[in-house]
Amino acid sequence: MSAEIATCTEKRWLSIIGIGEDGVEGLCSVARQLIGSAELVVGGARHLELAGDLICGRRLAWPSPMSDAFGEVRRHRGRSVVVLASGDPFYFGVGKQLAAFVPAEEFVCLPQPSAFSLAAARMGWSLQDVSLVSLHGRALEGIIRHLQPGARILALSWDGATPAHLAGLLDARGMGRSRITVLEAMGGPRERIRHATASHFKIEEILPLNTIAIEVIAEPEAAFIALASGLDDAFFEHDGQLTKREIRAVTLSSLEPRHGELLWDVGLGAGSIAIEWLLRHPSLSAIGIEARNDRAARAACNAAALGVPELQIVQGRAPEALAGLARPDAVFVGGGMMDDRVFEAVWAALKPRGRLVANAVSLETEARLADYFGRFGGELIRLQVARADKVGTMSGWRPAMPVTQWRVRRP
Q: Residue 273: which pLDDT band, with cuts at 50, 70 and 90?
């Protein structure tokens, strides 16, 4: 295998090499040769120190932001360049960013075991049964969507304070009995593994390079985020501007989220549609457009509380606020369909085969949707929900206002 790799590297100017805490001792002979012969070696200060005895060329430590160094890598195209990374460079590592501007046929990657692989081996966990999360450079709330009863989670830390912050989050959400294991500097002489519960987390002086293993144990009152569309309305703070649970479930079904797609939620309100869109899959993205300051702020709080802090919110009134936004794969219009300019703007922006879904409660908006349905086709449906309620000493059905929904696909 090493001979095949050596032949491959003769044709490729960029070598992306994973290095562990054991330094050069853990590198194969090909990796050592590539580092020693490179004109430029790029990596974190820790990586450059670990490989220091092998480096003969110029050293470049990643600046902040690290993308500032990508131009220097490009300028060395055709000459020997090595980029050092932790473990597996293509698992929450720099490999993805490098592959965005260097074709695969121009680089070779020699990975080491990732922090996830090492942590799973230490814990005796099968990786296929574990949720893998990175909190490095990301909001802590991003882990909330993975907190399920009995779940096992491996999380890459941002720094030495991350485990304590995470313990506090778990405790506050009724999961204080969850078991937390902090694995530091795995694979090297400083490796250390310590355990605690979330509610009694007293691990101190944690190294910045750490990975967190979590076994979720919850109290009966803990609020978990269901894996299906249509979360209980109580999950959302709102001022009445909320697509209710049953209508929301149907709306998400009509929007048909698919891998990697972008949603525009026009008239964001409490953010429930955009938030549930994002919860369907981590590859999805959403932009919410909201004219009112208070509602935009409330939607942002809801997004963080439900584990999707990546929701992008544009404060402004459609259609003006839509200018310059990335083209959507799907659009939900919860408000503004009485303005023809809003429809024209979102219809023009939709990608081919993109989906538009609009809900109406008022007779005037319903008439407008019926007109669009007559001109553009699609489906027009009426949704009616009734809830059992007290009627004197007995019970009866109390209907909610009917909702008319128009869904259409752009040719």
A: very high
